[in-house]
Fold this sequence. Notes:
CATH class: Alpha Beta
Helix content: 40-55%
Largest sheet: 7 strands, parallel
Strand content: 15-25%
Distance between the termini: 44 Å
CATH topology: Rossmann fold
Structural class: alpha/beta
CATH architecture: 3-Layer(aba) Sandwich
CATH superfamily: NAD(P)-binding Rossmann-like Domain
Shape: globular
Number of strands: 7
Number of helices: 9
Amino acid sequence: MKKVLIIGATSAIATACARLWATQGCEFFLVARNSEKLEQTSADLKARGAANVTTYCMDATDNTAHPAMLHDCLNAMQQIDIALIAHGTLPDQKACEQDMNTALQELTNNGTSVIALLTVLANQFEIQRCGNIAVISSVAGDRGRPSNYLYGTAKAAVSTFCEGLRARMYKVGVSVTTIKPGFVDTPMTKGLALPAALVVTPEVVAKLIIDGVQKNKGVLYTPKIWFFIMQIIKSIPDAVFKRLNL
Length: 246
């Protein structure tokens, strides 16, 4: 029976992943800000076959709360087999351009809070010498585009951090998977003008994540077509790129 910690557990992708793990009889420690949504998620997972579900309210951007959360998680489950970090926001790029405090808060939401959590979790996994750490980053971090470069900056920092952490953890038998979704139909993207042909459901992404974590994948584009899309975008010369509206 796998013991799964999910931070940002009420997000659409995290919920879809948890539902699949629940069918395998996993035990969960779910972390999110909204206690009502946490209880709803808990009941749903139990109905789908979860062995046990513990819920924990925490604002993931409060770095001082991370050690206590981990302590309570270990008290509940003794060990963590899989940790999925799935919290974050989709910033208003224009608002970030106009206000420094908004920009810094969004960097905290999507970047530094994730790195802080990973630092705390990595030390526990190093003690365990086993397990999987999975982190939802984004294809947005592969190149800074004018439409979302604040978000891309945060995700680029997460992806680079995970790359170094993956090499560190490999030496003690721990896998680190950087997940890079493209366009996903979630409440976070509601109302955005996205190309329908490239938008997938959280359930599609979740299946790829479950499979990727099981196979100890290092970097996981979900779906894989985004690897090729981003290779093209990264290959565009800067003299051309800066003239594009991407």
